[in-house]
Amino acid sequence: MTKGKAIDWDAWPHGGDLYGEIHLAETAPAPGKAAPAPLFPGLAVCSVGAAAAAWLADHYHFPIILLGLLIGLSLNFIAQDPRTHRGLDFASRTCLRLGIVLLGLQVTLAQIGALGALPFVALLGVMLAAFLAAIAGGRIAGQSRYASILAGGATAICGASAALALYGVIGKERLNQAQFALTLVGISLASALAMSVYPMLATELHLTDRQAGFLIGASIHDVAQAIGGGYAFSDAAGSYATIIKLARVALLAPLVALASVAFGMDDVQGSGAAPAIWRRLALPWFITGFLVVLALNSAITLPLPASHAALTGSKVLLLMAVTATAMRSRMDLLLQMGWRAAVPVLSATVASFLIALACATVLF
User: Fold this and answer.
1) For residue range 242-265, what is the model confidence (pLDDT) as tens digits?
2) Residue 231 burial (C-beta neighbours within 10 Å; 0-12, 13-18, 19+)
3) 304 within 8 A of 117, measured Cβ to Cβ
4) Residues near 72 by Cβ (< 8 Å), separated by ≥ 6?
5) How many other C-beta atoms are found inside a 10 Å radius of the C-beta of residue 149?
């Protein structure tokens, strides 16, 4: 300090800010704009729930997706904390889409071509029957058409994975997360039951390996349960069921593309505006990624460790998405729905089994 000269405190930033008020005022978010919640709390909770589901599935041989749903629903109260919302939303949307992209590494165009024309047409017939049965069942039970489309598409293609992909296009604005969670529960339970029952029915009906493989691969919803059910009958049936099921997985992209265009037209009718044609026909980026990865897997042969790593990564990401979606679901809406909400899945399951059995006995 210079003798006789006063100190200009204004020239010293924060010189008199003993309690940090100036710093807090400068770093505080603007009025009306809240600071974004961090990703970590929601992702951490979701990861713990998904890890618990994986451990239980490994030790007790229970469907992992169903366990993820149940654990997520049991931890539903955690989503009341706003700090978890951003992480849970990231897991339920971004993890889902990345998991769908990685799923493309599990199928090739050669596997689809190996079916032959007649079995492929029969498979399309089974899938169409499942879809139409879900629509009819949903209409009879008084369910929304979005719930019926979700159930029909999921049962026709590949169970929970297809349901997740379709819900990414439908959106929670058209269909609440409670209805989506209930659909996933129904699909997972139906797949688990079918994996145990269908091989026994095929044995009682004296089906051949090829007939049993077609029946199981064409009518069981989830991939793991369809393959497991086929090998429960015989190795030959398991191999054929795998090809049939992977052909269904490959049709995920066309189904989601059609749904995207149809729902885009719904938006047009609701708003009265006509969007550009490229916006109506544009595929969701994760379906485009699925097709690119499928084409890459068809063009080159990936090393077995890389293929296994991709499969594991896809399962982890989809499990995270399912668990996070269940955590964000409102239990009060889930309890209000009643048995009618399960009718689309039930009707599609019955139709796919009957049509697949008819095709198996007539064509093979």
Assistant:
1) 888 888 888 888 888 888 777 765
2) middle
3) no
4) 46, 49, 181, 322, 323, 324, 325, 326, 327, 329
5) 24
Q: Is 37 helix (H, G, I), strand (E, B) or coil?
A: coil
Are 316 and 53 in contact by the 8 Å Cβ rule? The answer is no
Question: Would you state the pLDDT for residue 236?
Answer: 86
Rounded to an integer, what is the distance from CA 17 to the centroid of its chain? 53
Reported as a single tens digit per residue, the pLDDT across 46-98 is: 999 999 999 998 898 887 877 888 898 888 888 888 889 899 989 888 887 88
Orientation of helix 209-219 relative to helix 235-250, angle to 10°: 30
| Distance in angstroms (rounded) separating the CA atoms of residues 62 and 324 | 19
The pLDDT tens digits of the residues spanning 114-147 come to 778 888 999 999 999 999 999 999 999 888 889 9
End-to-end CA, the chain: 101
Residues 323, 71 contacting (CB under 8 angstroms): yes
Kindly report the pTM of this predicted structure.
0.71
Lowest mean pLDDT among 36-40, 115-119, 323-327, 340-344: 36-40
Q: What does 182-229 look like in DSSP terms, one character per residue?
A: HHHHHHHHHHHHHHHHHHHHHHHTT--HHHHHHHHHHH--SHHHHHHH
Q: pLDDT higher for 263 or 324?
A: 324
345 close to 138: Cβ distance less than 8 angstroms: no
Residues 6+ apart with CB under 8 A from 260: 169, 282, 283, 284, 287
**Token couple for 205:** 């009906």
- Rounded Cα distance, 216 and 211, in Å: 9
Q: How long is the chain? A: 364
Q: Which of 359, 284, 295 is nearest to 118 (CA)?
A: 359
Mean pLDDT, range 222-240, rounded to an integer: 85
